[in-house]
Design brief:
mainly alpha
Length: about 325
């Protein structure tokens, strides 16, 4: 059996088991949290945003992502697997801490912004250092860059991606659906190996099984546990695929959402005015009267279009593939 055929077999088995296991795990999480009445107080964003309904919905669906990753790690317990899954799992721990504080205190506030950012930076710093020693850091295929550039760029990308996926996770099916599109883009751009193909398949299965329960009306949310995990997974894929810059097309929508929040914060603090009715951007359109399903579907279309355009541009100009 050739290496390529073997890799396809591993991917098929890994993806199937990940999807089936994820369906079961999400179902268990929903039942357990409902039985224990574990819900999370939602922030009130204003008219048109049904926070009263979402407050009764179980969260921390991202725990299933972590369990799936641990099983995948146990199936191939070597240095490469430990490095790859180490980042999304460590990111998920930061998110879980925030989720647990919100749930245990019956509050919409968990870790303070400074503490969360500090934890995210520490996790990213140690992992990027580890990755630079074990695999090396490559911004673009064939592009030689000094460590003084690749390290801070990758570190910033890791912290930024965690927060970008986190702020995008505000509507049923939005972050999970966008993540699936991002995986498709990275599957096209990155240079595949047997390990990377299997990792892709596991992530596709986990995300797809979650979306079965998260499309509107959501039966469970991924929480910060899930959004941090998915952000870390995107970074790990790009680092292992030898193209950190592939995060730009893959994170198209996530970047827009994060940028809208940053603009809003700066405008309020520096100029005492708002640019958007509410930030991140998806809530702005809800305040304009758009239905949640409409916002989600249109944002996913925009993400797919923008990511595909940037990916094609990267292939043509920068030789990403």
């Amino acid at each position: 059996m050739s290496r390529t055929v073997a890799g396809m077999g591993y991917a098929l088995i890994g993806g199937t088991l990940s999807f089936a296991g994820g369906v079961v795990l999400q179902h268990i999480l929903i039942r357990v949290q409902r039985r224990l009445r574990m819900t999370q107080v939602q922030k009130s964003y204003g008219i048109g945003i049904d926070s009263h309904i979402k407050s009764s919905t179980p969260t921390m669906g991202g725990i299933a992502f972590v369990v799936t990753a641990l099983i995948a790690l146990g199936a191939q317990f070597d240095a490469e697997a430990f490095l790859f899954w180490g980042l999304p799992i460590a990111c998920a721990v930061v998110g879980f801490t925030d989720d647990w504080l919100k749930s245990s205190t019956r509050s919409s506030e968990g870790l303070t912004s400074l503490r969360k950012l500090t934890a995210q930076t520490l996790v990213a710093f140690f992992w990027v250092t580890w990755a630079s020693l074990q695999k090396g850091l490559v911004l673009w295929p064939g592009l030689e860059c000094a460590f003084g550039l690749t390290f801070p760029v990758t570190l910033l990308a890791a912290v930024g991606t965690m927060n970008a996926v986190n702020v995008t996770d505000g509507l049923d099916g939005l972050a999970g659906g966008a993540f699936m599109i991002s995986l498709s883009v990275l599957g096209y751009l990155l240079r595949g190996t047997d390990f990377l193909s299997a990792a892709f398949a596991v992530l596709v299965g986990a995300a797809a099984s979650f979306l079965l329960y998260n499309v509107r009306p959501a039966r469970i949310f991924m929480g910060d546990t899930g959004s941090h995990f998915l952000g870390g997974a995107l970074v790990a894929l790009c680092v292992h695929g030898g193209a950190v810059g592939a995060l730009i097309p893959a994170g198209f929508l996530f970047g827009i959402e994060l940028f809208s929040s940053a603009i809003q914060i700066i405008a309020i603090r520096k100029f005492n005015r708002k640019i958007f009715k509410f930030a991140p951007l998806h809530h702005h359109f809800q305040r304009l009267g758009w239905d949640e399903t409409t916002v989600t579907s249109r944002f996913l279309i925009i993400h797919a279009t923008g990511a595909a355009f940037l990916a094609a541009l990267g292939v043509q100009i920068l030789g990403l593939r």
